[in-house]
């Protein structure tokens, strides 16, 4: 399922992730993952969207993901998100991507709202 990925070098792209296969998620975030859900994300997306992040990003010494850290609320509690992230939509007990059309629309919105982001062509 198509969804968005934001890297530590501020690139945003549409990637294909099989959310039913944990290995596909691990490949997308380059490691073991955990889910992050915040009020900021709910307010932004107006939907039950989560970020899937590298759970060992800080331990590995990965770079800060600026946009993911904003969604996480770094200015409130000082903790950052390290590493690449992908987004998923929670529907019941399932996590799915945004799909083709919605991924394009969300990417365009995020490019406008977060000037630090640059569009990257998907290569996954």
The overall pLDDT average reads: 94
Broad shape: globular
- Number of beta-strand segments: 7
Roughly how many Å is the radius of gyration? Answer: 13 Å
- Helix fraction bin: 25-40%
Low-confidence stretches: none
The fraction of residues assigned to DSSP E strands is 25-35%
Listing every helix as H and every strand as E from the N terminus to the C terminus, the arrangement reads: EEHEHEHHEEHE
Oligomer: single chain
Integer tally of domains = 1
Largest sheet geometry? 7 strands, mixed
The SS-based structural class is: alpha+beta
Q: Tell me the span between the first and last alpha carbons.
A: 12 Å
Q: What's the tally of helices?
A: 5
Protein name: DUF3846 domain-containing protein
Pfam families: DUF3846
Domain DUF3846: 1-87
InterPro entries: DUF3846
Task: Please provide a written account of the structure.
This protein is of the alpha+beta class and 124 residues long. The protein has one domain. Helix content is 32%, strand content 27%. The chain is built from 5 helices and 7 strands, in the order ββαβαβααββαβ. It has helices spanning 22-29, 39-45, 66-72, 74-77, 100-113; strands at 2-6, 11-16, 33-36, 49-54, 85-91, 94-96, 118-119. Strands 1, 2, 3, 4, 5, 6 and 7 form a 7-stranded mixed beta sheet that branches. A hairpin with a 4-residue loop joins strand 1 and strand 2. It is globular, with a radius of gyration of 13 Å.
